[in-house]
Amino acid sequence: MKSKLPLRRPLPGLMGLVLVAATGCGATTGDVTGTVMYQGKIVTSGDVIIAASDSLPYHGAIGGDGSYIVPKVPLGSAKIAVVSPDPDAGNDMAFKMNKSIKPPGPAPVRGDPNKWFALPDEYRHFDKSNLTVTVIGGVNQRDIRLD
Question: The pTM is what?
Answer without folding.
Answer: 0.73
